[in-house]
């Protein structure tokens, strides 16, 4: 294809309707026109065939009528009445003609309607079989039925005759023309009516899409926080996912804003300490230690708040992660890290366990919890993962150790959401605070209890599939 032809093809494509309704209407109209055209042609052909069959049957009936009135006047000579019961054969040039020919093809009898015409010779067929053929006479077309017979005359003599009935094709041209006109007018009206009906149906059927567009425009302008309206059941899942995505984006923005506010608030204390240290008369070594402590503290605060800000949490259309693909390498790594402590680190993970979210987030949650368990454990750490009973939407993780555990009065304080770094329980550090935020970001739950060995037991429930 040359570049000019390709350019013309592109231009013709661009001229097609860009709206969904326009495309559907154009496609439906083209289909209706082609379907109606094909249907009309088929009906027209069927009508013409039926009309032709009717003429052939009528000609056969005329042949049998001629046979019924034919009599032998004398040997070798047939007699047929000059007037037939069917008046059309008695009227000049009526379009209905009848003749009887002898064995030489000579006409020995004709109906009165034949008088002004001279039909061409009609080829004889097989004896006892009616043969239909088309003939032309003076520019006009006719349909002829020929029936050769062997007539047993007086004295047992046999004579060959040919009975012929002819009908002008103009006799059915009129009904055919009327049928064609009625058919094409009817089909045209039907196409127009159907196009109008389809346009109305599409306008009504696509109305919810316009409502969605208006709702989206309201969200863009800030007039609404989500898509609101009475939408069809088929579109409701899409609306729910869009609203979930909008809420997720709003939550992310709010998390950024809250993080900045928390960061500013958390840095006030270290900065105040540093200001006080610089204004005091402390010796240089003490000042250096204070500066180092507060800088380290500020570094931890910034790292924690930044981690909170970038936490993705639960999102629409999250990827589904097999839990064992995370736990197997994690357990192997911890066994190597804590090889000197001779810990027994095991993981029991059901094959059906899944996590709906980022693989890195699951690794961070389980990694931090198991690392804390290994730090405080005396000899053993165990991870169990299984789907929650009666549902496949959530996965429960249980991390147990035989360490000193966490005092009951401190457990709620450790799990308090949004707890700042400077008020964290000693010994848990910033890692557990990040895990709490991450679990809540996935709409999950986290509980601290006592293991069967007397140590800490941390239960975490996380989504296993997308709920929307």
From TrEMBL:
Q: What is its main location?
A: membrane
Give the stretches traversing the membrane. 183-206
Q: Give the subcellular location.
A: Membrane
Name the top EC class: transferase
Q: Which residues form the HAMP domain?
A: 203-254
Q: Which PROSITE patterns match?
A: HAMP, HIS_KIN
GO MF entry, a single one: ATP binding
Q: What catalytic activity does the UniProt entry give for this protein? A: ATP + protein L-histidine = ADP + protein N-phospho-L-histidine
InterPro entries given in the database record:
HAMP_dom, HATPase_C_sf, HATPase_dom, His_kinase_dom, HisK_dim/P_dom, HisK_dim/P_sf, PhoQ/CarS-like_HATPase, Sig_transdc_His_kin-like_C
Identify the CDD domains for this entry: HATPase_PhoQ-like, HisKA
Q: Identify this protein by name.
A: histidine kinase
Q: What organism is the protein native to?
A: Permianibacter aggregans
* Record lineage: Bacteria, Pseudomonadati, Pseudomonadota, Gammaproteobacteria, Pseudomonadales
């Amino acid at each position: 294809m040359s570049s000019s032809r390709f350019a013309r093809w592109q231009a013709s494509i661009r001229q097609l309707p860009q709206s969904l309704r326009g495309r559907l209407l154009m496609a439906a109209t083209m289909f209706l026109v082609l379907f109606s055209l094909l249907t009309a042609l088929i009906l027209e052909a069927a009508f013409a065939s039926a009309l032709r069959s009717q003429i052939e049957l009528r000609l056969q009936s005329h042949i049998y009528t001629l046979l019924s009135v034919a009599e032998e006047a004398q040997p070798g000579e047939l007699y047929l009445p000059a007037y037939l019961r069917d008046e059309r054969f008695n009227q000049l040039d009526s379009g209905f003609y009848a003749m009887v020919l002898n064995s030489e093809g000579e006409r020995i009898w004709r109906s009165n309607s034949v008088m002004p015409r001279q039909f061409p010779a009609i080829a004889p067929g097989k004896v006892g079989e009616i043969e239909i053929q088309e003939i032309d006479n003076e520019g006009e077309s006719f349909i002829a039925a020929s029936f050769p017979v062997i007539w047993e005359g007086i004295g047992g003599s046999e004579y060959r005759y040919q009975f012929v009935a002819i009908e002008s094709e103009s006799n059915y041209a009129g009904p055919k023309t009327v049928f064609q006109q009625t058919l094409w007018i009817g089909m045209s009206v039907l196409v127009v009516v159907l196009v109008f009906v389809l346009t109305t149906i599409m306008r009504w059927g696509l109305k919810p899409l316009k409502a969605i567009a208006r709702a989206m425009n309201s969200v863009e302008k800030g007039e609404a926080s989500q898509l609101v309206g009475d939408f069809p059941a088929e579109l409701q899942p899409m609306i729910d996912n869009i609203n979930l995505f909008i809420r997720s984006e709003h939550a992310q923005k709010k998390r950024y804003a809250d993080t900045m506010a928390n960061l500013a608030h958390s840095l006030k204390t270290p900065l105040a300490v540093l200001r006080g240290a610089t204004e005091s008369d402390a010796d240089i070594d003490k000042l250096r230690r204070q500066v180092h402590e507060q800088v380290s503290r500020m570094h931890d605060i910034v790292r924690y708040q930044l981690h909170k800000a970038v936490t993705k949490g639960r999102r629409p259309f999250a990827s589904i992660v097999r839990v064992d693909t995370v736990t197997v390498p994690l357990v192997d790594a911890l066994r190597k890290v804590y090889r000197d402590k001779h810990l027994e680190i095991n993981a029991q993970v059901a094959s059906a366990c899944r996590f709906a979210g980022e693989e890195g987030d699951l690794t961070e949650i389980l990694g931090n919890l198991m690392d804390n368990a290994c730090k405080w454990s005396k000899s053993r750490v165990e991870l169990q993962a299984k789907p929650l009973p009666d549902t496949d939407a959530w996965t429960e993780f249980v991390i147990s150790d035989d360490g000193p555990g966490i005092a009951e009065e401190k457990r709620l304080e450790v799990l308090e959401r949004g707890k700042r770094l400077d008020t964290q329980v000693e010994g848990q550090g910033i890692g557990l605070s990040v895990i709490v935020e991450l679990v809540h970001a996935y709409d999950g739950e986290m509980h601290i209890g006592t293991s069967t060995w007397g140590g800490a037991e941390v239960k975490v429930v996380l989504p296993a599939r997308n709920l929307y």
